[in-house]
Structure prediction request, 85 residues.
Amino acid sequence: MKLNIRHQHDKHRFATTVEGHDAFVSYLLSGNSLIIEHTFVPKPIKGRGIAAELVKAAYDYAHENDLVCQATCSYAASWLASQKH
Prediction:
């Protein structure tokens, strides 16, 4: 599935809408770090890889802007750890 992911700078989040449902990851900028704080995907659209795509978009943005990727969100922390293998 190709997602239309939007970077909502003013809300500090990356978001998408699937079948009328909004999903997003919210982040905090602290020094030279982008820290994902929360991942939200509504039940009707869970299990489709949407959270992973949103987290990837946020961390791609971090890399493009020379920011360190971090997470306080357990999903994003797990995703980030899986990328280091």
Observations:
- Residues 23 and 41 are 5 Å apart (CA to CA).
